[in-house]
Amino acid sequence: MGGEDEKSKISHSRKQHLKSLMLQVAKGTLEKEAAERAAEKQSYLAEHCPQLTLPHSMQELQELCKKLHGQIDEVDEERYDMEIKLQKSTNEVEDLNQKIFDLRGKFKRPPLRRVRMSADAMLRALLGSKHKVNMELRANLKQVKKEDTDKEKDLRDVGDWRKNIEEKSGMEGRKKMFETEA
């Protein structure tokens, strides 16, 4: 079976010819769109910006300049007002989005690391370094030495009653019993 025949059914020259035709069509549409945009621009300018007729006298030129400056000032004021309104509205939108975000409670919680900290270190962190607190309870305990008393010695000598019974059981235990009684 011919794998190469199935792979490329169109020859290389045919592909290049089709590609060049597609590029020519695309170029024609781009040029057409550019011409349409230029025509729209000309019609808009003709509608909104009438032809400027310059007067010949100096006084008329000054009046025209004053009129143009007045119009520029009005446009600047409108632009400034629009910018302020836009800033206010964007701030309000941000505030409302933040409120919605807070109400939903879907703020991302940072992953917390497990920190090994002693109780002393925790108390120092909470109370500050001025307070000296020692949480080691064993250090706070007083150490008392046990003194051997006679009662405790007797109890230790007698020991556990189970041991006595085990010792007395069997022949060896009975022998010891007879020896201690005699």
UniProtKB/TrEMBL annotation:
<dbReference type="InterPro" id="IPR050875">
    <property type="entry name" value="Troponin_I"/>
</dbReference>
<keyword id="KW-0514">Muscle protein</keyword>
<keyword id="KW-0009">Actin-binding</keyword>
<dbReference type="GO" id="GO:0003779">
    <property type="term" value="F:actin binding"/>
</dbReference>
<dbReference type="Pfam" id="PF00992">
    <property type="entry name" value="Troponin"/>
</dbReference>
<dbReference type="InterPro" id="IPR038077">
    <property type="entry name" value="Troponin_sf"/>
</dbReference>
<keyword id="KW-0175">Coiled coil</keyword>
<comment type="subunit">
    <text>Binds to actin and tropomyosin.</text>
</comment>
<keyword id="KW-0007">Acetylation</keyword>
<dbReference type="GO" id="GO:0003009">
    <property type="term" value="P:skeletal muscle contraction"/>
</dbReference>
<comment type="function">
    <text>Troponin I is the inhibitory subunit of troponin, the thin filament regulatory complex which confers calcium-sensitivity to striated muscle actomyosin ATPase activity.</text>
</comment>
<dbReference type="GO" id="GO:0060048">
    <property type="term" value="P:cardiac muscle contraction"/>
</dbReference>
<feature type="coiled-coil region">
    <location>
        <begin position="58"/>
        <end position="106"/>
    </location>
</feature>
<protein>
    <recommendedName>
        <fullName>Troponin I, fast skeletal muscle</fullName>
    </recommendedName>
</protein>
<dbReference type="InterPro" id="IPR001978">
    <property type="entry name" value="Troponin"/>
</dbReference>
<comment type="similarity">
    <text>Belongs to the troponin I family.</text>
</comment>
<dbReference type="GO" id="GO:0005861">
    <property type="term" value="C:troponin complex"/>
</dbReference>
